[in-house]
Write a structure and sequence with these properties.
The structure holds 2 protein chains of 2 kinds. By secondary structure, chain A is mainly α. Chain A has 5 helices and no strands. In chain B, helix 3 runs antiparallel to helix 6 and helix 3 runs parallel beside helix 12. The chains are: A mainly alpha, B mainly alpha. Chains A and B meet through helix 1 and helix 4 of A and helix 5, helix 6, helix 7 and helix 8 of B.
Chain lengths: 204, 594
């Protein structure tokens, strides 16, 4: 049922069971998926507000553009590979193929960890060049945006690690299907967020 | 893989094994609701005491040595923040949302019970962090509940070192708790309704909580972003909001930050926050009015649409809090227009409440007293909002007691009256007992008349130009001496209203043991939460089988029906006869004490 399909319904006129024998749900999806999508909207609001704040703040005269480290290109590649591997894992579990599932799922998480290590390396190189968090609003935003993005990724890795433990302990693959699907969705979202942020940081 | 609807799944409930898992680490939505409610009310008492201390200072500035200017500002700040966030938001959504959503949706529990439990404990952590600020060096922040930079971080402001850090940290933790709870509320309403319960058969309580939760999920991120950036300004010396500024003759390390940016972020959260509090109140009061008027809610569909419209519009009115902040005046025109537009669906709801009462078979039970009281205070608070929404009228009234009177009437007194209406209405369901009618009515009259005695004169003080936030007025040419007499009278009224709240606490605790047994449905309510096999509902709510819903929740005094209410889960073929289910006020257990 579409959420607002019956918004013009006159409920006082129709006694009896509406909608047939099934219970009422707004979406034909697991509650975990619905909750994750809502959470992604919330996270989008956070990053959107940070982006607006970034543009407002950069109009002020003390803003000095930051030249981002080249390391970020490599990091982007790592996150992209992570996302692709998650998608591969998702496809495998959908087709009920277990042969490469472990490799794809483990690889996806490992590349995500490498991304975070790469981001830390980028922070390190910025600090070596004298760009500290309070040096300039541009650097402050750089640390803030990349830090919050990494924090979201760490949350995802926590869920990934729980699923990995279940996979390693011999859990039925189909029982992990939802977890793998949701991880994949989450990783794609974080890749898109990172691409948008990277584009903004690089072009301003 | 096709999805099996949640209500059809053999749901694995977390069954409590011990006293600790039943009452402390409980995953039962009803226990969590009581935990949320109890904590919110406790912290609300702290805020109430702070307000009385403020009133003592304002009413009798030369007579008491209770608080100094610093502690006055700390009391103002903590009172405001606690009341808005930690009491009202937590009690409406964490308390009533948790208790009523699964019951009104015909579900056994929230869809994520563990996350629900976590939500409460993280909320408690946020409260403890906030309360800790009373005990750190310098005490809590005194920068006002709006926490405006740069003032809040300057050395002259109380709590500018530890206090502000703990406040921001507490807010961030609260938002994490709210998000966990909010995801649960929305997903449960969307995905876990029982058979036959379409969205348009939901009680307005659920609609109000549903839309308020969505507002919270979209609005709290603005406060989170602002809190994180201000934390970085305070702790690491960044300049997101802090401008170049001189403190005690020495320039600080900050450079070029934008205080106005903070204000925009704060109020992008702050105005929807008004409706995060108001929408659940609108829903709850609608159900109370309908039940005790023995009449279906007038204009159910319009009420739903109005809730949605108010929710949407609440995101485009935020800058009416910033007319005097130096914002571009053309923005003021836009925000004044949107502010007047949001009054339309709000007024529509007021008309519908009044029309629900019109020719109803009104039972003047205690919840009805508070619900009707709410209509009065909300109209008064709403009308003064029309004054302040206009730029040219707001300019002279801004930062005066007129504003204090306005927002206390519209989002202080009004939601609190609904809270009491709802607490008295659902108390029999939660406790299985009736409260003492006489004590409850005395509580109402003291509270209702007392709040008018407090806030009506404040409008006049505002017209005189008496500024808010001042520790003492001193002597000025434009404030007559009689204004001080009025301040003293307001303080006396505030003390009486504050003391009268003891009647409420005495009543609910006394009645837990000594109140009359409530029975299964003492108000003759048609909505689902009163149709559980046990009162109070036990773990799992519904026994072996989930209910099926056949009708909307407002089938009161249906023409041709023998009984004056038909429960939602009653099929047409089984509509009760007068003998079986007539609600007889003469045998109303709530009247038994009289």
């Amino acid at each position: 049922m579409s959420l607002f399909k019956h918004i013009t319904e006159k409920p006082w006129e129709r006694p009896g069971v509406i909608g047939g024998p099934d219970p009422e749900t707004a979406f034909d999806a697991a509650p975990e998926r619905v909750a994750l999508v809502i959470f992604l909207v919330v996270a989008s609001v956070i990053f959107s507000l940070l982006t607006v704040s970034y543009y407002v703040r950069m109009e002020l005269p003390d803003w000095t553009p930051l030249s981002e480290p080249a390391q970020l290109w490599l990091n982007t590649g790592l996150l992209f590979v992570s996302s692709v591997l998650f998608q591969w894992a998702r496809n495998l579990v959908t087709d009920d193929q277990q042969k490469y599932l472990m490799a794809a799922f483990v690889g996806a998480g490992v590349f995500a960890v490498l991304f975070i290590v790469g981001q830390l390396a980028a922070w390190n190189s910025l600090q070596s060049a004298g760009h500290f968090v309070a040096s300039n609003p541009a650097t402050s935003f750089f640390y803030l945006l990349t830090g919050l993005h990494a924090l979201h990724l760490l949350g995802g890795l926590w869920v990934w690690s729980k699923s990995l433990i279940r996979l390693l302990s011999g859990c039925e693959v189909q029982d992990l299907r939802l977890s793998i699907e949701l991880c994949t969705l989450y990783w794609h979202f974080l890749l898109i967020v990172w691409l948008v942020m990277f584009a903004i940081l690089s072009n301003t | 893989m096709s999805y099996v609807p949640l209500a059809d799944q053999a749901q694995e409930l977390h069954h409590p094994q011990s006293w600790v898992t039943r009452y402390v680490w409980s995953q039962d939505h009803k226990v969590i609701a009581i935990q949320y409610g109890g904590t919110a009310i406790l912290v609300g008492i702290v805020a109430l005491v702070l307000s009385l201390l403020m009133r003592m200072q304002l009413g009798f500035p030369e007579s008491f040595d209770l608080i100094d200017p610093s502690s006055y500002y700390q009391a103002v700040t903590m009172h405001g923040m606690i009341m808005v966030i930690y009491l009202l938001t937590a009690l409406f959504l964490g308390g009533f949302g948790n208790y009523l959503i699964p019951l009104m949706c015909g579900a056994r529990d929230m869809v994520f019970p563990f996350l629900n439990m976590l939500s409460y404990w993280v909320y408690l952590l946020s409260v403890l962090i906030l309360m800790a600020s009373f005990f750190v060096p310098g005490g809590p922040t005194g920068g006002g509940w709006t926490l405006y930079p740069p003032q809040v971080s300057m050395a002259g402001t109380p709590g500018s070192d530890w206090g502000i850090v703990l406040m921001l940290l507490s807010l961030a933790v609260f938002i994490v708790a709210f998000t966990m709870g909010g995801l649960n509320y929305v997903t449960t309403i969307l995905q876990a309704r029982c058979r036959g319960l379409t969205m348009m058969r939901l009680p307005l309580t659920v609609w109000g909580i549903f839309i308020a939760t969505i507002l919270g999920l979209f609005a709290f991120p603005a406060l989170l972003v602002a809190a994180i950036m201000m934390l970085l300004d305070t702790l690491l010396g960044t300049s997101f909001f802090m401008p170049a500024i001189i403190e005690s003759g020495s320039p600080l390390d900050y450079n070029g930050g934008s205080p106005i940016l903070f204000q925009h972020l704060f109020w992008f959260f702050g105005h929807p926050e008004v409706y995060i509090v108001a929408l659940p109140a609108f829903g709850l009061v609608s159900d109370v009015l309908s039940t005790h008027a023995r009449k279906n809610i007038f204009g159910y569909r319009m009420m739903v649409w109005a809730i949605i419209a108010i929710g949407g519009l609440s995101f485009v009115v935020w800058a009416h809090h910033m007319y005097v902040s130096g914002m571009n005046p053309y923005f003021g025109f836009f925000f004044a227009t949107t502010t007047l537009i949001i009054a339309v669906p709000t007024a529509l709801k007021v008309y519908n409440w009044v029309l629900t009462l019109w020719e109803g078979d009104i039972r003047m039970n205690v919840p009805m007293y508070f619900a009707i009281g709410f209509i009065f205070t909300f109209i008064h608070g709403g009308l003064t909002g029309l004054f302040l929404g206009n730029v040219v009228i707001d300019m002279p009234l801004s930062d005066t007691y007129f504003v204090v009177a306005h927002f206390h009437m519209v989002m202080g007194v009004s939601p609190v009256l609904v809270l009491f209406a709802a607490l008295y209405h659902w108390y029999p369901l939660v406790s299985g007992r009736m409260y003492h009618e006489g004590l409850a009515k005395a509580h109402f009259w003291f509270t209702f008349l007392g709040t008018y005695a407090i806030y009506l004169p404040m409008h006049y003080l505002g017209f005189l130009g008496v500024p808010r936030r001042y520790y003492a007025l001193g002597s000025t040419d434009f404030i007559p001496a009689s204004a001080q007499d009025l301040n003293a009278a307001i303080t006396i009224a505030a003390l009486i209203v504050g003391a009268a709240q003891l009647l409420f606490f005495i009543n609910i605790f006394w009645s837990l043991k000594h109140g009359k047994k409530a029975g299964s449905n003492p108000w003759g309510s048609a909505s689902l939460e009163w149709q559980t096999p046990d009162t109070p509902p036990i773990h799992g709510n519904w026994g072996d089988e989930l209910p099926t819903v056949y009708r909307w929740p407002y089938d009161y005094s249906v023409p041709g029906a023998h009984a004056d209410f038909i429960p939602q889960n009653t099929p047409e073929s089984e509509e009760p006869t007068a003998d079986e289910q007539h609600f007889d006020p003469d045998h109303d257990p709530s009247m038994a004490d009289l």
